[in-house]
Amino acid sequence: MKPFLRRLFLFLAVFTLVAVGLDALLKTGLRQRRTFTLGVWNRLMDGEIAADVLFTGSSRALMHFDAAAVQRLTGMRCYNIGMDGNQLNHQLPWLTTYLKYNRAPRLVVQNVDLISLVPDSDIYFPSQYPPYLHEAPILADLVHIDPSWWKDRWIPLYSFTRFGYAYAGLAVEGLLGLEDTLRDPLVLGFQRKDKAWDGTFDRFKARNPHGVRRRNTPEAQAFLRAIVRTAKAAGSQVVLVYTPEHVDMQRITLDRDQLMGTFRRIAHEEGVPFWDFSALPLCSDRTWFYNSQHLNGSGVDLFTPVLADSINALLSRPTPGRTVP
Is there a contact between 160 and 15 (Cβ–Cβ < 8 Å)? Predict the structure, then answer.
């Protein structure tokens, strides 16, 4: 049995070394990608962003904050790290990691919206995370939602097994520099959507003829406060922003006044401004939206100068607690 056990041990040792090496190589490939979400996170981790104005939040940040256009209008370096499908509990670890590797922005523009006040109970787009699980805040956030994420952190090739050959293909593309960087859908982290009204809201409204209510949890409020305090502790000014929302959605949200009141109260108590842009005239016209929550590209073009003017005014004459209608 001893020769057999020695051969078995040798085989397992070699297999483990190969698996560990291949896992590290493939994750290096993911870390070298320069496009889409992984491209944003890699620039963040490499300390390349170093924005004066940093936009953060959910999909409404991703698709409403045109960092390149704001940069032209303000003369300040801008970047957008908004994440599609992620709530405040997932945004906080990325902001913490951003501040670890990049100088603190002059201003953090934090998006809030109708569903900000309930934390995510699942993990959207999980394949974005495996290259960064050595960062304690990111791993802790994921494990809190799903304890099995320890496998992605510690078992070689586990992530590539569960996300499939296409995921490994992304890694190989990154290693060989084969990405199509000319067609990156993100520009300084902003994703433009040139789409007409798609009708999803109309179907949503038909399913909810008596209106809707949104949850407002102390847990999510605590995450919002933590984001504000983390940025302020790093030396940044912070503003909470509610970007344009179509008026029809505003009308059917029965507890909207309470939600907006919570944002105003938190902003006041934390000593930061709250800008509510949901009363802009463009919010009454579907021409500028592709659904009730998201501006299309033309709508963003209308909104951006208003946002840039507000940023210029805040940074030239900072007034804590000021509210911009």
Answer: no
**pLDDT tens-digit series, residues 32-66:** 999 999 999 999 999 999 999 999 999 999 999 99
Q: How far apart are CA 188 and CA 301, in angstroms?
A: 16
Tell me: the pLDDT tens digits for 104-148?
A: 999 999 999 999 999 989 999 999 999 999 999 999 999 999 999
Distance CA 112, CA 267 (A): 11
How many CA atoms are closer than 13 Å to the CA of 90, on its beta-carbon side?
26
Asked if residue 64 lies in contact with residue 300, where contact means CB atoms within 8 angstroms, the answer is: yes
Domains of the chain are 51-129+137-146+185-324 (3.40.50.1110)
3-state secondary structure the chain: CHHHHHHHHHHHHHHHHHHHHHHHHHHHHHHCCCCHHHHHHHHHHCCCCCCCEEEECCHHHHHHCCHHHHHHHHCCCEEECCCCCCCHHHHHHHHHHHHHHCCCCCEEEEECCCCCCCCCCCCCCHHHCHHHCCCHHHHHHHHHHCHHHHHHHHCCCHHHHHHCHHHHHHHHHHHHCCCCHHHCCEECCEECCCCCCCCHHHHHHHHCCCCECCCCCHHHHHHHHHHHHHHHHCCCEEEEEECCCCHHHHHHECCHHHHHHHHHHHHHHHCCCEEECCCCHHHHCHHHEEECCEECHHHHHHHHHHHHHHHHHHHHCCCCCCEEC
User: Structure pTM?
Assistant: 0.93
- Amino acid making up residue 28: T
Q: What does the pLDDT look like over 231-255, one tens digit per residue? A: 999 999 999 999 999 999 999 999 9
Query: For the chain, how big is the Rg over CA atoms in Å?
Result: 22
- Kindly report the CA angle at 246 between 261 and 62, in degrees rounded to 5? 85
- What is the Cα–Cα distance from 216 to 228, expressed in whole angstroms? 18
